[in-house]
Amino acid sequence: MINKNAFRNLSYGVYVVSTLDGDRPTGCVANSAMQITSEPATIAVSINHDNYSNACIEKTGKFAISILTEESDPGLIGIFGFQSGKDVNKFDGVEALEKEGLSVVADACSYLVCKVINKMETATHTVFLGEVIAADVLKEEEPMTYAYYHKVVKGKSPKNAPTYIAEEEETVQKEEKWVCSICGYEYRGEIPFEEVPEQFVCPVCKQPKSVFVRK
Q1: How many CA atoms lie within 13 A of 36 on its CB side?
Q2: CATH number, domain at 193?
Q3: What is residue 201's DSSP assignment?
Q4: Least C-beta-crowded within 10 Å: which of 107, 125, 147, 210?
Q5: Which pTM value belongs to this model?
Q6: How far is the C-alpha of 48 from the C-alpha of 182, rounded, in Å?
Q7: How does pLDDT run across 87-141, given as a tens digit for each residue?
């Protein structure tokens, strides 16, 4: 027996991994990134084969990691985690800094820019190994963990994330709730959802009230 909820006790962060699609910046949300060595500083990041960013990193040979914080706009997760860079320009409207030719999210506590030095293929993901060529701290805020995102923000992993667990495999409480059909955010406001103003938007993916469904 494998209870996949046990995996959530591993340590994960919430990151925006960015690269280039030609001259256009693009990226995706990842929660599996780790430091492998300190000298030379080397980082590994896991990207699903189905993520458009995977092929872009392969072609560009570089990637950047923006480390989101507990105070970062959760809408960033909606932008980078629940739509494809093949269809939209994800950095449109996102405040970004250019570092070593790549865009990094300004609303992050730190960033790392890496050049790809190796990779490993799994059945569903590519693990890119990158040597750090630039890194800095942008603000002194607490990095967001996956546990914080799941328990406090009430968000769900994008389907291509390594930590994604299908809804029917999760242990959930049998109670009525309103859930965003796009990103899985659960409304936990103080007033009944039916009384929420029509201009309400999902705090994670910025979709309108109409996409919420009762479960």
Answers
A1: 18
A2: 2.20.28.10
A3: B
A4: 210
A5: 0.76
A6: 19
A7: 889 999 899 999 999 999 999 999 999 999 999 999 999 999 999 999 999 999 9
